[in-house]
Amino acid sequence: MKQYQATVLSTLSSELGEGAFWWQEQQCWCWVDILGKCIYTRTMDGHQTCYEADRYVTMLVPEEGGKRLLVGTHDGIAFFSPAEGLGKDITVLDTRSNVRCNDGRCDPAGRLWIGTMQMPADKGTGNLYCITGKGAPVCKLAGVTISNGLVWIDDRMYYIDTDTRQVREFEYNQATGDIRFSRVAVTIPDGYGWPDGMAADAEGNLWIAHWGGFGVYCWNPQTGELLAKIDVPAPNVSNCAFGGPGLDELLITTAREHLSPEQIAAHPLSGSVFTVKLPVKGLLASSFKY
User: Running DSSP on this structure, what letter comes out for residue 163?
Assistant: First the structure.
């Protein structure tokens, strides 16, 4: 197994760092602090900006054209731009006060897939939705617990419900958006933490942030084999995304949530954001077609 070491990009600690994203048109890294209600951008020359929001912000995807981002919020989704900030929700996914949006990504056809989770995350209380343009959200998977990582490779969709400790593979029809479960591609062994956010590289492997696992792990979805680990000096690793000018860097978010004072003292970089240069390239995030 190959080993890599992440380096600190930003020590501005997030309670729940998430939403790792490379904004190609703006040539900057982006991420969120869900519980801190902040959206962050950081240019390649190190200029970092925090945009405060009035509600939870959970995931970031680009709108087609690259001028705005689509943001997951507490109840639904909204558009964000550095000039105008976070707008009003354009659709609502769940009206339960103890349920919020979580991770999400766009498929190759420009549909948004976004999941929800209860706080606290009781089993089977979340869903995975799909939104096509200005259409209403359609529930694709009901009764999940912590809806998390999503990637598409050719005619397959890979999806993480953290509670299952699995990466599930679905047959994916790009023309219709239909999915059909095919198999469990990866099962995370005990002692490796819990699978959270996920990115795919150009070779078809999955890079998965492991909550409680002190790193990002690279898995082969065809064989289920563990290929590599990026060591991160924080236990709760939440998300990752390929980016940078060469698409060969990985942005990694972490969290301080649920850590005791003793754990934070032992791992003071918890909540920081990290990067690592890799010998493989990632894939550009697909854009939302509104």
Answer: G
Question: Which structure tokens are listed for 193?
Answer: 């933490």
Are the C-beta atoms of residues 19 and 33 closer than 8 Å to each other?
no
Query: Mean of the pLDDT values across residues 236-246?
Result: 98
Scored b (16 or more CB within 10 A) or e, 78-116 reads bbbeeeeebeebeeebbeeeebbbbbbbbbeebbbbbbb
SS3 192: coil
At residue 136, the pLDDT reads 96
Average pLDDT value for the chain: 97
Question: What's the whole-model pTM score?
Answer: 0.98
Q: In which band, very low, low, confident or very high, does the pLDDT at 39 lie, cut at 50, 70 and 90?
A: very high
For residue 271, give the nearest of 240, 231, 236 by alpha carbon.
Answer: 236
* Residue numbers annotated as active site: 196
What DSSP state is assigned to residue 125?
-
- CA angle 161/39/177 to nearest 5° reads 40
Phi/psi at 256 (5° precision) = -105, -10
Helix (H, G, I), strand (E, B) or coil at 12: coil
Give the torsion sign (CA, 275, 281, 282, 287): positive
Among candidate residues 160, 156, 147, the one with its CA nearest the CA of residue 59: 147
Distance CA 155, CA 153 (A): 6
Q: What angle do CA 138, 142, 146 make, to 5 degrees?
A: 110
Condensed to tens digits (0 to 9), the pLDDT of residues 60-87 reads: 999 999 999 999 999 999 999 999 999 9
Confidence of residue 122 (pLDDT cuts 50, 70, 90): very high
- Give which of 156, 155, 139, 137 is closest to 147, Cα–Cα: 139
Query: How many Å is the Cα radius of gyration of the chain?
Result: 17
